[in-house]
Amino acid sequence: MCTVCGCGEGEVNIEGHAHDHDHDYRLAHSHGFGLNRKRDLHFGHGPAHAHAPGLSQERMVQIEQDILGKNDEFAAANRRWFSERGIFALNLVSSPGSGKTTLLVKTIEALKNRMAVAVVEGDQQTSADADRIRATGAPAIQVNTGKGCHLDAHMVGHALERLAPAEGSLLMIENVGNLVCPAAFDLGEAHKVVILSVTEGEDKPLKYPDMFHAADLMLLSKVDLLPYLNFDVARCIAYARQINPGLQVMQLSATSGGGMTAWLDWLTEGVRTAGASLAKAAEV
Amino acid sequence: MHEMSLAESVLKIVDAAAASQGFERVTEIRLEIGALSGVEIDAMRFCMDAVLRHSLAEGAGVVFEIVPGQGWCMQCGDNVEIGALYDPCPRCGSYQVQPTGGTEMRVKNLLVE
Question: What value of ipTM does the predicted structure carry?
Answer without folding.
Answer: 0.88
